[in-house]
Amino acid sequence: MKHNNYWPQAQLYLYATCALFPEKISGRTLTTDQLDEFIPHYFESDEQSEVLDRLKSLRFLDYKRTDYSDGIAEFVIDDIDDGKFTDYLYEYLEKFRNDELLGDASNKPEPFKALQKRLYAYLSDSTRTEPVINPTNIWSDWIAGDMRQRPFWEVILTSDMVNSDTKTLDIGISATKNSINDEISVPFAKLAIQNPAAIASDTKIYTKRLAANLEIRNFGNNERKLILVLENEQSFIFHDSLRTDMPPHSLMKHLIANPGKQTTISYVRTKLDGCADVKNLSEVIRDCDFDKTLKDIFFDEMSRTSVRLRQNPVVTMDELYKSSHFKSGRIVSLPL
Q: Within a 13 Å sphere around the CA of 235, how many CA atoms are in the beta-carbon half?
């Protein structure tokens, strides 16, 4: 199939959703207005059926349409072939990367390298390892409805599907209000950096030192877990639950409330709930999901008979990812 001209952004969003996140559409009952996010209808819902009919004829997907007497139409899309969407999208994105797409000379986007530089400059400056990007992060003067060609989805998807420098974790359209209180739609993508060296030579995102805090949170049904919160608002949840009648919970609750202060085993045995039989404080900390890497980061002192939680610890993402528990998935990112 030939890809000579720039696609509308809505078409890119539809194809990217079907290629990367088909579960967002497949099997859902969508009204004409809900489907408008992926296939804009400017006058009537037949425009949406025409697009779906073409995709169905190419065996990219199947769909059923139901019309009601009040003029409302509903669509159910299923049998999405994400492989076909991926292949078709990849061909288009390769042409985009090679600056081979055609467009109005007076309205043609910047060359790909310049656009990539805009995206990577933002990623390099971000303190988050999974930044959420919208067009204003690439073009400071972007506004919704801008008639200038601003290939947001091309830039985002090429960095993932062609260059493999990032991984797209989520895409969507968020509703917000502009300066005059009009509701506008803003596309966004959540990315994970796969190739830091390509994003920025100094890999600033991984070596920036961040203040770190430990918390215990209740997740319902009296289930409590340890949470690591970084100053960039990124949080991580530890795998093991902390029972309120067991030593790990009692000791960590005490240490978090008393950072920088030494706690001895005699104090733990006599003052903390459920700890009368504790024989080794280091083992209790290990039962809280602290491996050697994390112990070195968060504790000034660690032995069988005494322990001291570091006051105001700082950490880099590079240091955290050296932890065996991060590598194995025992400690994972907590959605914002």
A: 13
Tens digit of each residue's pLDDT (9 = 90 or more) over 38-80:
887 654 557 788 899 999 999 999 999 998 887 788 999 999 9
pLDDT band at residue 112 using 50, 70 and 90 as cut-offs: confident
Which helix H or strand E contains 90, and what residues bound it? helix 82-97
- Mean pLDDT estimate for the chain: 85
Q: What is the mean pLDDT of residues 236-258?
A: 91
Sheet of strand 314-315, all strands in order from the earlier edge strand to the far edge: 314-315, 210-218, 224-230, 235-242, 331-334
Q: Which residues pair with 73 in a beta bridge?
A: 67
pTM of model > 0.85: no
Residue environment code for 296-314, b if the CB has 16+ CB neighbours within 10 A, otherwise e? ebbbeebeeebbbbbeebe
CA distances from 149 to 123, 200, 203, 223, 307 (A): 22, 26, 31, 50, 60
Q: E strands along 153-204, which residues?
A: 166-177, 183-193
Computed on alpha carbons and rounded to an integer, the radius of gyration of the chain in Å comes to 26
The owner of tokens 């920088």 is 260
Element containing residue 180 per DSSP (H, E): none
DSSP per position, 232-281: TS-EEEEEEEE-TTSHHHHHHHHHHHSTT--EEHHHHHHHSTT-TT---H
Shortest CA distance to 108 belongs to which of 39, 162, 154?
154
Buried/exposed 162-192: b ≥16 CB within 10 Å, e otherwise: bbebbbbeebeeeeeeeeeeeeeebbbbbbe
